[in-house]
UniProtKB/TrEMBL annotation:
This is Molybdopterin synthase catalytic subunit. It comes from Faucicola osloensis. Belongs to the MoaE family. It catalyses: 2 [molybdopterin-synthase sulfur-carrier protein]-C-terminal-Gly-aminoethanethioate + cyclic pyranopterin phosphate + H2O = molybdopterin + 2 [molybdopterin-synthase sulfur-carrier protein]-C-terminal Gly-Gly + 2 H(+). Heterotetramer of 2 MoaD subunits and 2 MoaE subunits. Also stable as homodimer. The enzyme changes between these two forms during catalysis. It is an enzyme of class 2 (transferase).
């Protein structure tokens, strides 16, 4: 993660600064590959016995059509603000210690990770429940859209993040 998205511009910062930002706020958009090992390491805590994660990848088909790539677009400042609020809400609503979520924007090839969510808690059930809740909330509330490109034609289709 070599860039932090804020406002409508991309600010180039060091990879360390980018990860410090996502760890501090709990949510980030990035145009770089997501380093899930680094995010998992950031969540580790001696007080937690459970880590639940979700990775969403770009698949090669949708609705019986061959997909060649996706391009994600986001209303960046609103997405960052809303993502931070969702992380705070998850911490208040569930019995967890911490949570982090990262969503890609830009062009993604088949097999690339588009979203990563990690939740740590003392026990597995709150971690699993929160991870699923965060995924559903991110898909419903974060202003990110995807443009789906097809291998069998030159057309593309715009979809909401939950479609």
């Amino acid at each position: 993660m070599n860039a932090l998205h804020t406002g409508s511009s991309t600010i180039s910062i060091s990879e360390d600064q980018a990860y410090q930002t996502v760890i501090a706020s709990g949510f980030a958009l990035t145009d770089r590959a997501i380093d899930d090992r680094r995010l998992k390491h950031a969540l580790m805590s001696d007080t937690c016995g459970a880590l639940a994660t979700f990775e969403g990848w770009v698949r090669n088909h949708n609705n019986a059509r061959p997909v060649s790539k996706l391009t994600y677009y986001g209303y960046e400042q609103l997405a960052l603000n809303q993502g931070k609020k969702l992380i705070e809400q998850a911490k208040a609503q569930f019995d967890i210690e911490n949570a982090i979520a990262v969503h890609r924007i830009g062009d993604l090839a088949i097999g690339e990770m588009a979203v990563w969510i990690g939740v740590v808690a003392a026990h597995r059930y709150p971690a699993f429940d929160t991870c699923r809740w965060l995924l559903d909330a991110i898909k419903a509330d974060i202003p990110v859209w995807k443009q789906e490109f097809y291998a069998d034609s030159t057309e593309s289709l715009w979809l909401s993040n939950n479609g």
